[in-house]
């Protein structure tokens, strides 16, 4: 959602805010933070926070509101109490390269908004997975880590060759790592295998091409290096939950 106006509030539950675009500033407690794409803000219950927009660059957010309970065993009896204690998260941190966490955040919001059968249980599961992904990302924040730099180099290479086919051996030669070690490192860093990640990048590009509306599904598939239109459609539906043609109709014609 876009947030064009200033707001100030204090909530009785926890909140996660992920910035998807735009600019501005957000104050949490007594600390002011710049609003930038890829930033994650955590606001604990009872903490005053306010948002100041940038009129020339409206910000857009994804938000998750939640509460949790503490379950404990005391003298043979189970006790469940509402827990208002803050989670062990920083009030502001970057998730720009936390691919798994970003994906889970979007899935969680989509799941809740769609409200399909079983969505409450699924949302709780996705929220737990999101916490794990965020913690794993925090643990991997080592700017000088050579392996992380090599993964970044591979991702940049993929972006440059989004219309081509790339092989694991090709990428291994690029960063001078053995294929098996590269596969393991890439999965640990991004949460996806090399092929899964490259296909996701292609699907993101496919969505852009479909919305532009001047290419048929077959042409989009060919533009992204898929020789089989039906294989492309299967990959697209696996990632987005709908076919390319359904995505086009929904986002271009609102059907």
Note the topology.
Elements: E1 2-3, E2 7-10, E3 14-21, E4 24-28, E5 31-35, E6 39-43, E7 48-53, E8 59-66, E9 69-74, E10 77-82, E11 92-94, H1 99-114, H2 119-139, H3 146-160, H4 168-175, H5 179-190, H6 194-212, H7 217-223, H8 229-240, H9 244-253
Helix pairs in contact: 1-2, 6-9
Q: Main beta sheet, described?
A: 5 strands, antiparallel
Which stretches of 5+ consecutive residues score pLDDT under 50?
none
Instruction: Give the strand content.
Output: 15-25%
Mean pLDDT: 85
**Arrangement of strands in the largest sheet:** 1-8-3-6-11
Count of alpha and pi helical runs = 9
Q: Any idea what the shape is?
A: globular
Query: How far apart are the termini?
Result: 20 Å
SSE order, one letter for each helix or strand: EEEEEEEEEEEHHHHHHHHH
Helix content: 40-55%
How many strand units?
A: 11
Structure classification: alpha+beta
- From the alpha-carbon coordinates, what is the Rg to the nearest angstrom? 21 Å
Instruction: Please state the oligomeric state of the protein chains shown.
Output: single chain
Task: Kindly list the characteristics that best describe this protein.
4-stranded antiparallel sheet; 5-stranded antiparallel sheet; 255 residues; alpha+beta; globular; 9 helices; single chain; 11 strands
């Amino acid at each position: 959602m876009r947030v064009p106006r200033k707001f100030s509030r204090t909530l009785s539950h926890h909140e996660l805010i992920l910035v998807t675009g735009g600019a501005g500033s957000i104050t949490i407690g007594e600390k002011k933070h710049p609003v930038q794409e890829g930033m994650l803000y955590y606001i604990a219950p009872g903490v005053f926070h306010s948002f100041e927009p940038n009129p020339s660059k409206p910000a857009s957010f994804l938000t998750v509101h939640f509460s949790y309970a503490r379950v404990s065993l005391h003298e043979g009896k189970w006790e469940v109490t509402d827990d208002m204690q803050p989670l062990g998260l920083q009030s502001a941190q970057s998730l720009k390269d936390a691919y798994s966490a970003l994906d889970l955040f979007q899935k969680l919001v989509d799941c809740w908004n769609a409200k399909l059968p079983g969505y409450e249980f699924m949302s709780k599961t996705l929220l737990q997975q999101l916490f794990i992904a965020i913690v794993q990302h925090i643990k991997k924040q080592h700017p000088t880590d050579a392996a992380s730099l090599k993964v970044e180099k591979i991702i940049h290479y993929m972006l440059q060759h989004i219309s081509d086919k790339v092989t694991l051996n090709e990428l291994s030669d690029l960063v001078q790592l053995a294929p098996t070690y590269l596969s393991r490192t890439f999965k640990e860093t991004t949460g996806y295998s090399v092929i899964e990640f490259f296909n996701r990048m292609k699907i993101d590009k496919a969505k852009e091409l479909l919305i532009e509306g001047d290419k048929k599904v077959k042409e989009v598939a060919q533009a992204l290096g898929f020789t089989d239109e039906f294989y492309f459609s299967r990959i697209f539906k696996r990632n987005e939950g709908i076919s390319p043609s359904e995505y086009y109709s929904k986002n271009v014609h609102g059907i």
